[in-house]
Automatic annotation (TrEMBL):
Descriptive protein name: L-seryl-tRNA(Sec) selenium transferase
Cited function: Converts seryl-tRNA(Sec) to selenocysteinyl-tRNA(Sec) required for selenoprotein biosynthesis.
Residue intervals of the L-seryl-tRNA selenium transferase N-terminal domain: 12-51
Cofactor(s) needed by this chain: pyridoxal 5'-phosphate
Annotated source species: Dyella koreensis
SUPFAM superfamilies reported for this sequence: PLP-dependent transferases
Keyword vocabulary terms for this entry: Cytoplasm, Protein biosynthesis, Pyridoxal phosphate, Selenium, Transferase
Gene for this chain: selA
Pfam family membership, one: Se-cys_synth_N
Reactions catalysed according to its record: L-seryl-tRNA(Sec) + selenophosphate + H(+) = L-selenocysteinyl-tRNA(Sec) + phosphate
Family: Belongs to the SelA family.
Pathway: Aminoacyl-tRNA biosynthesis; selenocysteinyl-tRNA(Sec) biosynthesis; selenocysteinyl-tRNA(Sec) from L-seryl-tRNA(Sec) (bacterial route): step 1/1
PANTHER family reported for this sequence: L-SERYL-TRNA(SEC) SELENIUM TRANSFERASE
The organism's taxonomic lineage, starting at the top: Bacteria, Pseudomonadati, Pseudomonadota, Gammaproteobacteria, Lysobacterales
Entry-annotated residues carrying N6-(pyridoxal phosphate)lysine: K297
Length: 477
C-alpha cells in the first residue's frame, strides 16, 4: 500500500469505529434481532470489507449507518437454513424441500402441543399412565380397517422395525423384482442386514411366481415381504404375485406377510382426477398381516411411518426395544392426529389438505395465476429476459406415482443473452431472503405455479421485490 494517495488514506481514516456503528438506529434493530455478539462481529467484518474495498478502489468512506446496513446484509446472509421458500419446481412432494406442507389443522395442533403440556402418555379417565399410540390407534383403524396400529419416525423405520421384530436371525423372503432403493441409502438388502434378517430372494427381476415363494418358505422364515415398487415400474414380459395370493401363501406357511406400500394413500385418488394408488384399506383387505406406509408422502402429513395390521403382531412390534428408539414426539403426534382427522371427511379433504389441493389443482386455475403474476415477474427480471406463460408437467414426487405427470402451467423465463445469465438469475432467486426455487430445462427457467397458494401471492411478490440481478451480475466470472 506504499502508493496510496493522500485522499485514499484520508477516506480510510474516515471509516467509522465499531462503537459509532453500534450507536446507529440501524444497529439498534440488529442488536434486537441478532444479539450483541453476532451484531458486533458483523460490524467488524463490514468495516474490514469496506477497508479492503477502499484500498482497491478509492471512494468516500461509508457512513456509520451504511456500515450498519452492510452488517445487516452479512447477518441476513446467515439466515436459518430451514427458512421458508417457494417450491416452484413442479414436484409437489419434493423430498429435498421437506415433502408435504401441512394442513392448518395440523399446524395448530402442533403449535398447541409445543406451547402446552399434553396428555401424551396419560390416561385422563384413569388418572394413570397411558399409551403414546392410543391417540392414533382408533383413527388409523377406522381409516384403514385394520385391527391395530402403531407409528414410528418414518416408513424406513417402520420397515426396519418389522424386519427386526419378525426376522431377527431368521429369513425374510422377497421377490427380486422388489429389491428397491429409495435413495438416501435406503436399500432393501442393506436394511435387511441391519435388521438382523437373512434375505432370501425369490424369482427374477421381471418374473416371480407363486411357486418361487412356496419353495422358499420354511421353518427358518420369519417374514414374507411385498414391496410396492413406488419409484420405478417393470414393464414388458413380467409376472408378480399379487398381495391377495401372496397373503394366502404366507398364511398357509404360518408366516406373516408385510406389505410395504411406501406412499400408501388413505383415499382413492382417482376421485380427485389422479391415477389410482393402492389404498391402505385395500392392502389390509387383501390379507397382508402388516401394512406399512409414510406420513409425509401422499398422505400429506408430517414425517412418520405407520404400521397397521393384526393386533398380536402390532403388540409384538410395540414390545421391541427398538420401537422406543424410533418413536415420534408430541409435536408430530399432534400433527398426525389432526391430519388423519381430515380424512374422516373426504368431501372437504382437497380444500383442507395442501398436498391434495396442489395435486388436484385445476390447470385453468394455475394458468390464471401465471397470467396474474407474469407482468410483475417480467418487470422485476428486466429486459435481459423474456417471461412467458407456458405449459409444463408437474410430478407427485417422493417416488409416488413415478410415471404419472400432471399438466401444469409455468412462468418460463429465457435469457436474451447467454445461458450463464439464466443460471445467474436462477441463483439470485435461490438466494433471496425467501428463496424461489424453479428448475432449468430446455434453456428456460421454469417456475411451475402449481404449488403457489393464491394466499401466498403477496409473499411471492414481496420476495421477488428483493431480487437484485444487478448485484449478482457482478459475480459472473
Ligand atoms: C418412501 C418409501 C419408503 C421409505 O419411507 P420414508 O417415510 O421416506 O422413510 C419405504 N418403502 C417404500 C416402498 C417407499 O416408497
Amino acid at each position: 500500500m506504499s502508493c496510496m494517495t493522500e485522499s485514499e488514506v484520508t477516506s480510510l481514516r474516515h471509516l467509522p469505529a465499531v462503537a459509532a456503528v453500534l450507536a446507529t438506529a440501524e444497529a439498534a434493530v440488529l442488536l434486537e434481532r441478532h444479539g450483541r455478539v453476532a451484531t458486533t462481529d458483523a460490524i467488524r467484518q463490514a468495516i474490514d470489507e469496506a477497508r479492503e474495498a477502499l484500498r482497491t478502489a478509492p471512494a468516500a468512506a461509508p457512513s456509520a449507518t451504511e456500515v450498519a446496513q452492510l452488517a445487516r446484509g452479512l447477518l441476513e446472509a446467515r439466515a436459518p437454513g430451514l427458512r421458508p421458500l417457494f417450491n416452484l419446481t413442479g414436484t409437489v412432494l419434493h423430498t429435498n424441500l421437506g415433502r408435504a406442507v401441512l394442513a392448518e389443522a395440523a399446524i395448530d395442533a402442533a403449535v398447541d402441543a409445543m406451547r402446552h403440556a399434553v396428555a401424551l402418555e396419560y390416561d385422563l379417565a384413569e388418572g394413570a399412565r397411558g399409551e403414546r399410540d392410543d391417540h392414533l390407534r382408533s383413527l388409523l383403524c377406522e381409516l384403514t380397517g385394520a385391527e391395530d396400529a402403531t407409528v414410528v419416525n418414518n416408513n424406513a423405520a417402520a420397515v426396519l422395525l418389522c424386519l427386526n421384530t419378525f426376522a431377527l436371525g431368521r429369513e425374510a423372503v422377497v421377490s427380486r423384482g422388489e429389491l428397491i432403493e429409495i435413495g438416501g441409502a435406503f436399500r432393501m438388502p442393506d436394511i435387511m442386514t441391519r435388521a438382523g434378517a437373512r434375505m432370501v430372494e425369490v424369482g427374477t427381476t421381471n418374473r416371480t411366481h407363486p411357486a418361487d415363494y412356496r419353495n422358499a418358505l420354511g421353518e427358518h422364515t420369519g417374514l414374507v415381504l411385498k414391496v410396492h415398487t413406488s419409484n420405478y415400474r417393470i414393464q414388458g414380459f413380467t409376472a408378480e404375485v399379487g398381495a391377495r395370493e401372496l397373503a394366502a401363501i404366507a398364511d398357509a406357511a404360518g408366516v406373516p406377510l408385510l406389505n410395504d406400500l411406501g406412499s400408501g394413500s388413505l383415499v382413492d385418488l382417482s376421485r380427485y382426477g389422479l391415477a389410482k394408488e393402492p389404498t391402505v384399506r385395500q392392502a389390509v383387505e387383501e390379507g397382508a398381516r402388516l401394512v406399512t406406509f409414510s406420513g409425509d408422502k401422499l398422505l400429506g402429513g408430517p414425517q412418520a411411518g405407520f404400521m397397521v395390521g393384526d393386533r398380536v403382531l402390532i403388540e409384538q412390534i410395540n414390545r421391541n426395544p427398538l420401537k422406543r428408539a424410533l418413536r415420534v414426539d408430541k409435536l408430530r403426534l399432534a400433527a398426525i392426529e389432526a391430519t388423519l382427522n381430515l380424512y374422516r371427511d373426504p368431501d372437504r379433504l382437497a380444500e383442507r389438505l395442501p398436498t391434495l389441493r396442489f395435486l388436484a389443482r385445476d390447470k385453468a386455475d394455475i394458468e390464471a395465476q401465471a397470467h396474474r403474476l407474469q407482468p410483475a415477474v417480467a418487470a422485476r427480471v428486466g429486459d435481459a429476459f423474456v417471461v412467458e406463460v407456458g405449459n409444463c408437467l408437474s410430478q407427485v414426487g417422493s417416488g409416488a406415482l413415478p410415471l404419472d405427470t400432471l399438466a401444469s402451467v409455468a412462468l418460463l423465463i429465457r435469457s436474451r443473452g447467454s445461458q450463464s445469465e439464466l443460471e445467474c438469475l436462477a441463483t439470485a432467486l435461490r438466494t433471496l431472503q425467501r428463496p424461489i426455487i424453479g428448475r432449468v430445462a430446455d434453456g428456460a427457467l421454469c417456475l411451475d405455479m402449481r404449488c403457489l397458494a393464491e394466499a401466498d401471492e403477496p409473499l411471492f411478490l414481496a420476495a421477488l421485490a428483493e431480487l437484485d440481478i444487478g448485484g449478482t451480475a457482478t459475480h459472473i466470472p
